[in-house]
Amino acid sequence: MRLALIPALLLAAAPTALMAQDEGNAPMSPAFLQAMEPMVPRDAASDRQVTTAHAITLNGRKLAYHAIVTETPMPGSDGMPVAEGVSYAYVADGVKDETKRPVLFVFNGGPGASSSPLHLQAFGPRRMVGKDQAAHIEDNRFTLLDSADLVFIDPVGTGASMPIKGKDASSYFGVGGDARGVSLIISRWLKAHGRTASPVLLVGESYGTSRALAILNENMKARTWLPDGVVLLSLAIGDTDGPVIADATLLPTLSAVAWYHNAIDRGGRTVEQQFAQALHFAQTDYASALMQGPSLPAAEKARVAQQMSALIGIPAATLEAADLHLDKRQFMLTLLAAKGSAPASSMRASPVRCRKATCARRSTIPRWRSARDRPRRSRDI
Hints:
This protein is an alpha/beta fold. The chain contains eleven helices and nine strands.
């Protein structure tokens, strides 16, 4: 089952993977260099673990759990610690058979971002609500803890995972080194908590999707553990100048979001059925239309735009003007405007699609200095 995931992931990642066969020795990217500036080195390595007991009520059911903060010494080439890796876990109590209880290992992107966004704003059992003086922590009714145990990871150089004073931790700042570091934190956590037989899933967001695939690649080469599944949020696994895969992958998700917000005619379908319908369309008519590009006949372009509009709630004329390409910001603003939450001026100010020749904001996106320095998609979990 695990090996069955590999071909599809590698196919999506192939263009960049071929250009960036990084072995962990590629120069640090500008994004990593920026992320290093606020680093505060640790005085010494530590293998401390702190555990506290908590409870949360989800869907009317009280769920007791333990929060576990773990520090993991990260070895350098000589085997001695050069950095500290930190993870934050939430493990449900009273589970009869842990071999059937999934463990989700979650990380954000950047590169250079800690796990705090997904940890405290999305999946953790507690979440940050409000801003500035009104900010506070409260129970998160959207947490995934009722379905799986959660482990949030700060890769070395982010969050609380810092180099050790006087040590060279740069081996963890390449694509391969970063992946190997996260993989090490995962494997040690599984062994320490007796969960090596549990289903394991990686959850990566943005650059974290590239990291997840890089972990697959590194672990395949090392012939070590492989996960049972991979969840890719806000995909960043392909060349941003080649939108076919990105758009075709994004469309089913936008369709599910539109279904949730009643922005489309549900037609009696469940969200699972809606996603499946959109996925089939994305893999067939939509992908074919995108690949034809400017040679796509006008009538076919109009037909595909109408189908897209029915699936995601964006006007067909807007989609035709964008050459059928998707823009998450445009989708969000259209959805908010329909719900009366976004002024029309916000939508007019937002370009349908940001391209090099027409959008100055494109220059704010971090650029890799060479193909070898670009995030690599990897082989397998």
